[in-house]
Amino acid sequence: EHLFIKKDSSPLEKGELKGDCEKRINFTSKFRMIKFLIYLFESGMCLTLLFLVYYLFLRKETYFTFNRIYLISILIFSLLFPIVHLNITSPKTKVLEGQVQEIDKFKSYYENIIALTDPDYLQSFSKPFQENETNEFDEISGAAFSSQNNENTTSISVKNSINKKTGFWDRINLSTILLILYLLGILFFAGRLFLLFRWINQTMKKYGSTVENGVKMVKMDEEVPPFSFFRIIFLNRETTSLSGFGQIVAHEKVHIGQLHSIDLLLAHAITVFQWFNPFVWFINKAMKTNHEYIADRNVVEQGYELFDYQSLLLKQIISIRSVELVNNFNLINIKKRIAMMTKIKSGITAQLKALVVIPAAIFLFFFFAEITLAQDAVGFQNKDLTNELQGFWKNIDDDTYGQLLNFKGNDLQILEDIDSYREIRYQFPVGSVSETTESFKESAISKHINSIKELRVFHTLPLKHGKAKSIKLVFKNDKLIIGWTQEQVSIYTKLKAKNSLESFSKSINDDFEPTSTSYYRISENSDKAFFLLMNKKGQILLDGELVELENIQNKIKEIKSKGNPFNEPKKFAVIIVDARCEMAYVNVMFRKLREMDQLLHILSVKPFDEKVPEIFYHNIGIPRLFPPKDAKLIDEDEVEKSGMEIIRIDLTKGITPEKAASIFKNEIQKDKKYLVLYSYKNETTYNEYLTILDEFYQSIFAKRNKLAQEKYNLGFDDLAKAQQKAIRKSYPMAITEKWVD
Fold it and tell me: Region 25-38: what's the mean pLDDT?
């Protein structure tokens, strides 16, 4: 049961490899992979169901033009429906709400099944920043020369952690296999399509073309049936001598005039995309057949004898190969084509069948589209309500939901407990007075409001795996009252805090200046933390109470004795120091903590980047461990005699962060025995002190990540413990501090 600390990345613009950044990318890739698999499934289902409507109701009817439009629409709509996000605003949302919830419930079944192909996908949502997880952090800088080695260093790791798979197999799971198979299929069928284009192009170059009967023709020696591709007719030379040659040309001219080649190109493109779906191949065949019906009907309507034209079809050699991408004159099934030519045109019954398309398309649209319901109640216009809500709100009752809120634009950050948060999008509909109080338990809300006109409603925007939620709120006497459900009502008071750290420290005022770093980790055990703040004057505030330096040890013991007695030894200090505070004050505080064996601590920092939301600032910082009181002090000469090189970073001589970064980059080499001696004086500001440490941490982790990439093709944090240990031996975190005053 150790404190679990996570490290976040420093800016990429410095060109440094960061393992945790790669994890974030891996997580994003997994997220997109599952989303794409779900999209493939939904678009395939949409295509299948729309085609079944055609097959059951329309394929035998003579409305060929309508069928052509419908088949094209199937291809387009099946791609679009799953990515449509529809916002519905209605004064009677509840009429639709139940139906939408049932649809969401059904959709969640197959979405969860697909998500199970990658176990890491669902686990990634269990806790914030799960994608940055690391199993251990074995070294933390000390505050004096210490004889402790890596083997004796206190480990900070996850309770019951397990070794991770590394290398290529770490990236392989069922979802990855499915995606690889899918991509291989795309390559295969795209290759087939490319070869068809290549064959058509080579045929044109080989035989050339002539213009006859107002159309360009390519006469070949190959035994292929006549076909057209865009504005060109391809046919065997012997076909020109047939008595029905004029009818063949008339037939192909219909394909050319109606741009049937565009339909087929679209169909083949979708076939490449949905190659695994057998119904996409059925659509392809149905589209070609329908094209032939259209061409046959037009030829007969041009005045050619029906009997002669049907005889010409029967005389065609149907055993020779056809060309897949184009419209072949003798496309099978000739028997069906002849039967369709003699069929009586569809009447009113067929028209009624066509109407089936409308409800089917509407149902599929609402089923596969992502729908957000918004209630448009009447009575009150919430024009400025979003502005009123902006900022932090603290729950005055720890037993109700939502410990802390941060309204930031249209984003709502909810600190659910000290170690987890939720971030959602929300919106206020136009006119959002609640028509009813049923969102509240009457006994829970009646003491806070006099009239339902005080209630205002906002809606959370659902994610793909979630649903929209209507939430009621009330402003009352500078309080914010939110009804999350009928049973859960939380009451908040407005804070001046700009982040959760300020909220938890309870004492940071407008004159406080935080220190920003690129290196930091994220703690999951903030329930064991107590906050120790030092302002720019060196005054100490412990959990919001001003404490004299000589009484700080007694006050810490008092704080640690509260709550769970078994947690007392594990409680740690989160130290928040004003950037302008001098190290003369800070080091006295450090010494007091070390004297009482309060060795584990976190130096709270403000991140340079925006990866961590403001509502989680209380959980980030630089983890450190003071050496114990009995740690042996070693002279510099003794260190050098042991074979270690001392790399001196002396702030007393005005060294800049840029110079320090250059020294770390050049002096710290692989498998080199070194010790960084970091010296500073009383007047050194906390910001100067921490900036140099930040440069050191960044340099070490950049070198470790680079070596991990070279040896294992993985980031340092992705490696197994044994591999991490080997990397650490090559680049140890060997740094100690010297307070020269």
Answer: 62
* H or E segment and range at residue 232: strand 232-236
For the segment 141-191, what is each residue's pLDDT rounded down to a tens digit?
433 333 223 333 222 233 333 334 444 445 567 777 888 899 999 999 999
Nearest to 191 by CA among 261, 283, 271, 260: 271
Q: What are the residues facing 22 on neighbouring strands?
A: none
- Using the structure block, give the residue that is written with the tokens 């074995």: 138
DSSP labels, 561-626 = TSS-GGGGGG-EEEEEE-TT-BHHHHHHHHHHHHHTT--EEEE--EESSSSS-GGGGGGEEEEEEP
Q: Both tokens of residue 380? A: 């009150």
Residue with tokens 């070294």: 139
Beta carbons of 679 and 711 less than 8 angstroms apart? no
CA distances to 210, 465, 574, 603, 690 from 533, in Å? 89, 41, 8, 10, 16
**Quick one: 204 exposed, middle or buried, by C-beta within 10 A (0-12, 13-18, 19+)?**
middle
698, two tokens: 């960044």
Reference 624, options 664, 572, 586; nearest CA is 572
The pLDDT tens digits of the residues spanning 58-115 come to 888 888 999 999 999 999 989 888 887 665 555 444 555 566 666 666 666 666 677 6
Tokens matching residue 231:
């504005």
Exposure class string for 675-712: b at 16+ Cβ within 10 A, else e:
bbbbbbeeebbbbbbbbbbbbbbbbbbbbbbbbbbeeb
Nearest to 474 by CA among 456, 489, 458: 456
Cα-based distances in Å from 336 to 124, 247, 293, 573? 55, 19, 9, 83
Cβ burial, residue 665 (10 Å; 0-12/13-18/19+):
middle
Peptide bond into 382 cis (omega under 30): no
In angstroms, the CA 616 to CA 624 distance is 20
**Torsion angle, alpha carbons of 446, 450, 452, 458, to 10:** -70
Residue 101 CB contacts under 8 Å (≥ 6 apart), including other chains: 467
**Which residues sit opposite 685 in a β-bridge?**
582
Report which of 604, 400, 392 is spatially closest to residue 483, judged by C-alpha positions: 400
